[in-house]
């Protein structure tokens, strides 16, 4: 009887450990996220995003980010600027409704992590790296990243070859374990 009990107990422990491992890796994006931007021509935020987040700070190689930002949710605090930003000359939200990032690799760095992948914006896909930190508090956590995007690389505005081509972003994403 003992010969059967020990292997059965071992299998049960392994199954429970595997279940815990998978449930702590999958995160649900919580309300209160923030996608703020600053640039030469406008400051504001994108107010709508959704996506899939799989991340374990002990195993960043297993991470996967697939995030969509709704272009029409841009808010500069000025209705005319919002319409202009959504229009054909800038983001063309009707034709390109989302900014989409899909990671292909996540690596640990000296200051946090780098999510390397593809950024799809304005119909142009380019390799892109988003540096970020992650702070866990039990079954909740917060991702935070600060980076810049060259709008000219994505066909948004005519590049000038200087700092005005860049938009600086600060992204804060609270998450809850699924």
TrEMBL record:
Read off the Gene3D superfamilies from this record: Lipid/polyisoprenoid-binding, YceI-like
Q: Which residues form the Lipid/polyisoprenoid-binding YceI-like domain?
A: 26-176
A Pfam family matched in the record: YceI
* Name the UniProt record assigns to this protein: Polyisoprenoid-binding protein YceI
């Amino acid at each position: 009887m003992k010969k059967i009990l020990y292997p059965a107990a071992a299998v049960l422990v392994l199954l429970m450990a595997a279940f815990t491992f998978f449930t702590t890796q999958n995160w649900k994006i919580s309300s209160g996220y923030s996608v703020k931007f600053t640039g030469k021509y406008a400051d504001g935020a994108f107010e709508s995003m959704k996506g899939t987040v799989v991340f374990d700070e002990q195993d960043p190689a297993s991470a996967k980010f697939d995030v969509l930002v709704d272009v029409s949710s841009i808010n500069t605090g000025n209705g005319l600027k919002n319409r202009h930003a959504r229009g054909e000359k800038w983001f063309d939200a009707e034709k390109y409704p989302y900014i989409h990032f899909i990671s292909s690799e996540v690596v640990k760095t000296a200051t946090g992590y780098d999510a390397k992948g593809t950024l799809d914006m304005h119909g142009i896909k380019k390799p892109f790296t988003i540096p970020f930190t992650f702070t866990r508090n039990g079954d909740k956590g917060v991702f935070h990243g600060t980076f810049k995007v060259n709008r000219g690389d994505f066909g948004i505005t005519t590049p000038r070859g200087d700092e005005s081509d860049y938009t600086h972003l600060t992204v804060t994403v609270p998450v809850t374990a699924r």
